[in-house]
Amino acid sequence: MKETKSRKRQREKHGRPQNMASSSSKIKKSSSDFLDKMRARLSGGHFRMINEKLYTCTGDEALNYFKEDPSLFDMYHTGYQEQMSHWPEQPVNIIIQWLKAHSSSLVVADFGCGDARLAKNVKNKVFSFDLVSNDPSVIACDMSNTPLDASSVDVAVFCLSLMGTNFPSYLEEAHRVLKPSGRLLIAEVKSRFDPNTGGADPKMFSKAISDLGFTSILKDFSNKMFVLLYFQKKEKENSTRKGIEWPELKPCLYKRR
Questions:
Q1: Has residue 158 been placed in a domain?
Q2: Which of 1, 27, 70, 117 to pair with 194, CA 20 to 30 A apart?
Q3: CA–CA gap between residue 108 and residue 31 (Å, rounded)
Q4: 157 and 185 in contact (C-beta within 8 Å)?
Q5: How far apart (Å, rounded) are the C-alpha atoms in residues 141 and 150?
Q6: What confidence tens digit (pLDDT) does each residue in 131-184 have?
Q7: Is the dihedral of CA 94, 54, 146, 75 positive or negative?
Q8: What is the span of the domain harbouring residue 69?
């Protein structure tokens, strides 16, 4: 009996600290998980706020917004990448494939380049533009006023970047810098071109771009997340550009997960 009690006391003596350590470890892990979730929610909230701001202001206002606090740009793109991770396919990868299927001598202007993934994955000369530059290869500017010369590039790309309320001025700038017969490639969130949910009529949007001085080459609505629109700049300038009727592109606002 004495031996049994002694062993029992010995087990309790050595077991309590171990059990306490195990409980403490679980509490710390639970606390850490909670803090991670709170940080993710806070980060997601900031992203949604910045995202809504970019969709509902002009490009010039967005440029000044990030000039006042450049850290907001990093916060936005962190949230953007998290959102993109849920997409089964990335539109930028399709545009990369398109460029690789064409001559590497084509000069490209990437309007709203983000992390400049396009430029990093093709052999072409790419001018990468965005509101903030955290990379030497990226030029910070308002996309309606780039430093490029007129008729100086072969391809203009807008990959999920027609965000400002003055988006027509971005497309006018693309028309200015494109050479005659140059290509305009647009990838946008599909819901923005769904009239049934408040989106723009894609036919009206294409007509506006045609009136700007382009010919529609291809419309690809096969992906459930985004649309791809391909245009070619006309050889002759359009003299009636001032009367273009642009449809409103509704903001792409992300819901809280």
A1: yes
A2: 117
A3: 49
A4: yes
A5: 17
A6: 999 899 999 999 999 999 999 999 999 999 999 999 999 999 999 999 999 999
A7: negative
A8: 36-85
Domain assignment present for 110:
yes
172 and 53 part of one domain:
no
Count of positions (residues) in the chain: 257
Give yes or no: residues 99 and 222 share one domain.
Answer: yes
| Spatial CA neighbour of 200 closest among 186, 183, 181, 213 | 186
Phi and psi at residue 231, to the nearest 5°: -130, 160
Quick one: three-class SS letters along the chain? CHHHHHHHHHHHHHHHHHHHHHHHHHHHHHHHHHHHHHHHHHHHHHHHHHHHHHHCCCHHHHHHHHHHCCHHHHHHHHHHHHHHCCCCCCHHHHHHHHHHCCCCCCCEEEECCCCCHHHHCCCCCEEEEECCCCCCCEEECCCCCCCCCCCCEEEEEEECCCCCCCHHHHHHHHHHHEEEEEEEEEEEEHHHHCHHHCCCCHHHHHHHHHHHCEEEEEEECCCCCEEEEEEEECCCCCCCHHHCCCCCCCCCCCCCC
What is the CATH number for 74? 1.10.10.2150
Residues 226 and 160 in one domain: yes
Please write the tens of the pLDDT for every residue from 85-144. Answer: 889 999 999 999 999 999 999 999 999 999 999 999 999 999 999 999 989 999 999 999
